[in-house]
Write a structure and sequence with these properties.
Helices cover about 45% and strands about 15% of the residues. It is α/β, with parallel strands linked by helices and about 350 residues long. It has two domains: about 180 residues, Rossmann fold (3-Layer(aba) Sandwich); about 160 residues, 3-Layer(aba) Sandwich (Rossmann fold). Helix 3 runs parallel beside helix 4.
């Protein structure tokens, strides 16, 4: 099939990884970068925030022209913040329109409000949509999308694997506990504050301007964000990697619960029903439900090296053999959108 992927996120782990995996599965893919047409500098930031301006009009026109010219079987609109209902209705006769979104557009994060004017209004024009979390299935159906399915995130074998660090890298990255992520007003600050107060080597990577107000006495322990290979090295430098879930997004898991074990690192994550389905607690990963349990498990597993290594190895094996990789997810996606396409053809 010919698949047009309309890029709306940032990072190699998103649309570029989809395109590569789908190509390896025998599909013909093209990426249309919707970020490349807005105005430069501050004016571009303004129009992207307002979802209004000449750059927004330009990418809508280019999408219509591309679909009419190339005639893809499937058009995947990733996030889709820039596209209104009229644009999607213009391409609907030529392609099956499906979407995907990492965040929860129906959740409580106020930053999502700016997307609602365009994105939510456009949903009835989609033929189908894949969602990151199960809770969004009914949300999207209520918004007018006829076919909705959950598609969980993944690890990428070519990116997520154990790293052997050089001596210099070890001196920088090695630690007892590593956490890489953003700030929310939930239990994560309390959990981290509890272990920062102990004699535990903690590496906390994130935007210090957001973390510092919550961890004032430990501001000098904060490290800048890491991405790409540096992100994987930072994970591999930790004996334990902590994982918290976004309450803004109503998450019960996140991408890191696949990336961390795939990198051969011991995963300590919040306990949720989804996590208890993904990994066997105490055998393939460990979970916690409070700052007290978070701290207790860190102290326990730092004192039991062999048990920690055994669980990390079992978690990596589970991730590799249970369909948590991007190729398995893309096979699922292909099967579902192919079925949706058949239904659309038969509906005419």
């Amino acid at each position: 099939m010919k698949i047009l992927i309309v890029k709306g996120a940032f990072g190699a782990q998103y649309e570029p990884a989809w395109a590569e995996a789908l190509t390896q599965l025998g599909q013909e893919c093209r990426i249309l970068d919707s970020h490349g047409y807005s105005l430069p500098g501050i004016f571009g930031r303004i129009e992207r925030r307002l979802i209004w301006g000449p750059g927004i009009r330009r990418i809508r026109e280019i999408l219509i022209k591309t679909v009419k010219t190339w005639r893809p079987d499937i058009t995947l609109i990733y996030q889709g913040h820039y596209f209104d209902r009229a644009t999607l209705l213009a391409i609907k006769p030529y392609t099956l329109i499906t979407g995907y979104h990492n965040d929860d557009p129906f959740g409580g994060h106020q930053g999502m409000l700016r997307y609602r004017r365009c994105f939510l209004d456009s949903l009835p024009a989609y033929d189908g949509f894949h969602v990151y979390r199960n809770v969004n299935i009914e949300d999207f159906k209520q918004a007018g999308v006829p076919q909705v399915a959950e598609l969980r995130s993944y690890f990428i074998p070519a990116m997520d694997y154990p790293r052997t660090l050089s001596s210099a890298e070890q001196s920088y990255y090695d630690c007892d506990l590593v956490y890489i992520g953003h700030v929310e007003e939930d239990s994560r600050a309390a959990c981290l504050r509890r272990v920062l107060a102990d004699s535990i080597a903690v590496h906390l990577y994130g935007e210090s301007r957001f973390w510092a107000p919550l961890l004032k006495e430990y501001a000098n322990r904060l490290r800048p964000p890491v991405f790409g290979d540096e992100y994987r090295k930072a994970l591999c430098g930790g004996k334990i990697a902590a994982c918290f879930f976004s309450k803004w997004n109503r998450d019960l898991y996140t991408r890191r619960v696949f990336e961390i074990p795939a990198c051969g690192v011991f995963l300590l994550a919040e306990r949720t029903p989804v996590m208890q389905e993904i990994y066997q607690e105490g055998q393939e990963a460990e979970f916690f439900g409070s700052p007290e349990e978070f701290s207790a498990k860190i102290h326990y597993y730092l004192a039991h090296d062999e048990q920690r290594r055994r669980i990390a190895a079992a978690g990596m094996q589970r991730a590799r053999t249970s369909g948590y990789d991007i190729h398995s997810r893309m096979k699922q996606w292909l099967a579902q959108v192919s079925e949706w396409k058949k239904r659309k053809v038969h509906s005419y």
